[in-house]
Amino acid sequence: MHTEGSLTSTSADLRKLADTLVTEYSSGRSIDNMDNLFRQPDREVIFECIRNLMKILYPGYYRTRNYMIYNVSSIVSALLEDIHYHLSGQIAVALNNTYQIRDPEKMKENDLKAAELAAAFLQKIPEVRSRLELDLIATFDGDPAASSYGEIIMAYPGFYAITIHRLAHELSLLKVPLIPRLMSEYAHSHTGIDIHPEATIGDYFFIDHGTGIVIGQSCVIGNHVKVYQGVTLGALSTQGGQSLKNKKRHPTIEDNVTIYSNASILGGDTVIGHDSVIGGNAFVTKSVKPCTRVNVKTRELQMTKRSCGESADEWFYVI
Questions:
Q1: CB atoms closer than 10 angstroms to residue 90
Q2: Is it the case that residue 1 has pLDDT exceeding 80?
Q3: What is the model's pLDDT at position 319?
Q4: What is the pLDDT of residue 80?
Q5: Amino acid 318: pLDDT
Q6: Across residues 68-79, what is the average pLDDT?
Q7: In what order do the strands lie in the sheet with 200-201?
Q8: Domain check: are 141 and 203 in the same one?
Q9: Does 45 share its domain with 114?
Q10: What is the pLDDT of residues 226-262, one digit of tens each?
């Protein structure tokens, strides 16, 4: 039970802690930059743009409450205007913050540039939808458990992740800073699938199950590729840190490749040739020729007789 004295003491301690933290905020460390408080993009605004984009991409599945067939044009126009307005504002903030722009005239220029970038991005929606249609077909064709296209759109995390990646990738091609990364992390937090927005992914792409997949920044994936859960398409080493920036650190996966669960393919010089299959748990750091099957040699299983009455705790592994 708290007494009046203990509450007073705790309150005083918390005020002292608050004063200490506020003093730290002016220390000049990167984590203490209060100057950035209102100069960073607003993640919630960006996430709302994503949700509105989903309504445009899949009107029969992500619709507004006042959706009616006879006013679709008005609703889509309103959604586009809303996305353009908010996305323009966030792009302008990202441009100013990334390049440390503080000059009022330059900031006005960035407002105009941001509006142009947002408009250019929205013009890509028909192309993105065409590519997503191929991804949808790939998912349905590749998964016997799929009962309908609608199930995939509404319930498949892999398809959700590739949808957001296709959008984020278009923004990255326009050299928009930070916002594509926030979009990819939004998908990551919802699906457990981590795709860098700069990764290049071809048509008819299928992610099955998906949890734990990592696709790195400079990864290039061809057409008709299938990837299962836990796959890493990553860098061979990151010990070089920032000196590796803008270098190809992640593998190239050619057309018609299947990569089974928990396989790791690493390195910018690593190329998986077309029509190859990479088995589960494989660790690949060298290129694979086309039409190759890569698999890990099965470990020997040892089975011994046990008494039906013995404790379930009396077991062991032979490795």
A1: 22
A2: no
A3: 35
A4: 96
A5: 38
A6: 81
A7: 200-201, 220-221, 252-253, 271-272
A8: no
A9: yes
A10: 999 999 999 987 666 776 777 899 999 999 999 999 9
Whether residue 159 is contained in a domain is answered as yes
The domain of 164 spans 37-193
CATH code at position 52: 1.10.3130.10
Kindly report the pTM of this predicted structure: 0.86
285 located within any domain: yes
**DSSP secondary structure string for all residues of the chain:** ---HHHHHHHHHHHHHHHHHHHHHTTS--GGG-GGGTTTS--HHHHHHHHHHHHHHH-TTTS--TT--GGGHHHHHHHHHHHHHHHHHHHHHHHHHHHTT---HHHHHHHHHHHHHHHHHHHTTHHHHHHHHHHHHHHHHHH-TT---HHHHHHH-HHHHHHHHHHHHHHHHHTT--SHHHHHHHHHHHHHS-EE-TT-EE-SS-EEES-TT-EE-TT-EE-SS-EEETT-EEE-S--TTGGGGTTS--S-EE-TT-EE-TT-EEE-TT-EE-TT-EE-TT-EE-S-B-TT-EE-PPPPPP------TTS-TT------
**Interval 25-37 mean pLDDT:** 76
Q: What is residue 135's predicted lDDT score, i.e. its pLDDT?
A: 98
